[in-house]
Amino acid sequence: EEEEEEKEEHDKKLREDKRELSPKRREEIEAIQRAIDEENARIYSARSKPTTAESAVTQSVDRSRTHGKIIDFVSAKQREVSQKVAKKQKKRSEELLRLIDLDFSITFSLLELPPVNEYDMYIKNFGAANTKQAYVQCNEDNTDRDIQTEEVNTTDKWTQHPPEANAACGGSRASEDRADESTSRINTNSQRLTTFLRSAAQVMAVLIEENMAESNSVKRLRSQTDALSFSDGCIQLNTKLPFLHGRQVSLLQFSQVQRQTLLSVHPPSSKSSAVRLDSETIICVWNIWEPSRPQKILLYESEVKCCCFSPGKVTLVFAGTEIGSVVVWDLREHSGTHLNLVVGKEVWTLRYPTFSTDAVLSVVGHLSPVVSIEPVLATADTSLKSTLTADIDESLGLSFQLGSLDENGVLTLWVVVELHKGNDSGSQTDLGLRPGGKVKLLHSSSLQTTEKSPQDVIMGFGPPVSLQLKFLPSDSNHYFIGTNMVVVFPIEFQLVLPKFYRSQFDSCRPVEVTALDFSPSGEPLFLVGCSDGTVRLHSVQREDPLMEWSGCSSGASILSVQWSQTRPAVFCVLDAASDLHIWDLTVKDYVPFVTENIHNDRVTAMAVFGEPAKQNTFSGVALAKQSGKVEIQYFKESLTVPNACDTEKLKSFLHNAFLI
Predict the structure, then answer these.
(1) Taking the model in full, what pTM does it have?
(2) Fewest beta carbons less than 10 Å away: which of 148, 208, 313, 546?
């Protein structure tokens, strides 16, 4: 095809040339072509018999003779093959040149001539061969001089890293006193540094929470949409977690030292969830200033009936269970020793009890459900220790007493002991202590607090059931037991107190004492809530109540009654009808000051919090809803800031009672 195209082009070109050229020029060209043809004929005739390729070339030459042009295909083919081979070699050489590089890592010194020192230069210029100069001293320049310096004091010192105990360095006996003083100063400074870091971390966490709340307009830190009439703002804890789905809140408990720390008890749920923890009780430790997620998550296999914090800093959590066991969680344990659960993109640490009395102390333990558990305070001012002192005591170990009460009225006293070091392989003697645990309970004593009286047998009442346990704040040797017989039993050792605290109406009718709380202001007063809806104000020295309110709850059982932490004359009452009553005795002492009917999402538990010792006084109430939500309602300033009328009102109650 290419040859035919070339032939057509050639013929076309010749025809054009013929038309363009003059006759004389055309004759000259024809003569030249004839000479070329004759020369080519002589060359081909001189060759031997042609091959197939040569015959093809000859035929093409014969065809082209008529047109005056000869094409040598053999030479062209050879040139084309040579050019292709040359191009491949050139391309290969270029690729190899990019890969081949000279190695300059090895260097050789062709000439190394060290410099000539002054002596060799001198000998080279002025010395003779095989000679060496030397110098001597003839004692002419040996002169004596007198000098005077102060004597240098030397002291031996030693150091060790890492240090053992409190000693990291030492020296001679002369410096022992100074070393001890320096060691104590180091310990004190380290404790202050630890306290500062904890406080700073808390502040930073709160600031981060506030920034997150401000950036998300839907979840503001203090929203007024859910605020009640007595509230100055509302915080909602984030209970929309996978392991809390479908769970209600049965109990709320605030710490008496770190008053922003809250315990929420979530009993086992009948609804199945993505996280297989439906048969276990979950206890969440919250910081209400960080509502986005709980600080700690505690687990137990049985239902938890009551719980409390340790009396000092929030390091331990105690709980009484449905099966009669008492369990302890040490919040200081490292998260690596507990179960880590991955839910979505977050990792949650699930902590099982550090110590449990399950079947280990069955002989001296409880045989019925534990309904109340309280720490025994040595003095009334235990919770008012400074932070530095609390940290020092924590480093030296903690030890205090704990009281637990079951339904049968058995009061058991335990001694909380912290071991010097935990054993990761477990203990062969303390079978209730988990491997690596450092806190355990030792049984101290047991006491039967309630007995069935002959009058109860005659009237057909059943045995008394204990429901509440409280210690007298001014003297921990006195225990107050609330029962189902509308009475409160004080168990005394020193003071002379009434044997019973009864209602002034229908004292023979059996009514359960469902709530009991002492005044935090130091006055000898306590509140009692009953199952028939009555609320009583008692004095410790008087059997009859100072005040008794019977119509506030419309006959619904009282679930919780708690004093305000900042105002002595204010207290809150929650009944089974989900009505929240707030009393302010300085305004009204016969009816509640505020009553909130919360029926759209019923309230199942309540806890009052507040900080009276701070400059920025705050107080409020935590409400657990039936849907599983936990709301923090802050009180208005009128219900928060204390005034002189509060104490005067309480003293007037006491004065009028003893005049009757």
Answers:
(1) 0.65
(2) 148
Closest CA to 297 of 372, 350, 228, 365: 350
Residue 592 tokens read as 């509640």
> Cis peptide before 612, with omega less than 30 degrees from 0?
no
Q: Compute φ and ψ for 645, nearest 5 degrees.
A: -70, -25
The whole-angstrom separation of Cα 474 and Cα 524 is: 8
**For 3-102, where are the E strands, in sequence order?**
none
Rounded Cα–Cα distance for residues 370 and 374 (Å): 11
What is the C-alpha separation between 109 and 128, in angstroms, rounded?
32
Per-residue pLDDT tens over the stretch 457-467: 444 455 667 77
Q: What is the helix (H) or strand (E) element at residue 644, kind and residue range?
A: helix 644-659
Strands (E), 449-531: 466-471, 479-483, 488-491, 513-518, 525-530
Three-state secondary structure of 300-366: ECCCEEEEEECCCCCCEEEEEECCCCEEEEECCCCHHHCEEEEECCEEEEEECCCEECCCCCCCCCC
E strand or H helix that includes residue 150: none
User: What confidence tier does 277 reach under pLDDT thresholds 50, 70, 90?
Assistant: confident
Please, which residues bridge with residue 340 across strands?
Answer: 349
Q: What is the pLDDT of residues 187-202, one digit of tens each?
A: 667 778 888 887 888 7
Convert the pLDDT of each residue in 308-325 to its tens digit: 999 888 889 999 999 999
- Tokens standing for 145? 């001089």
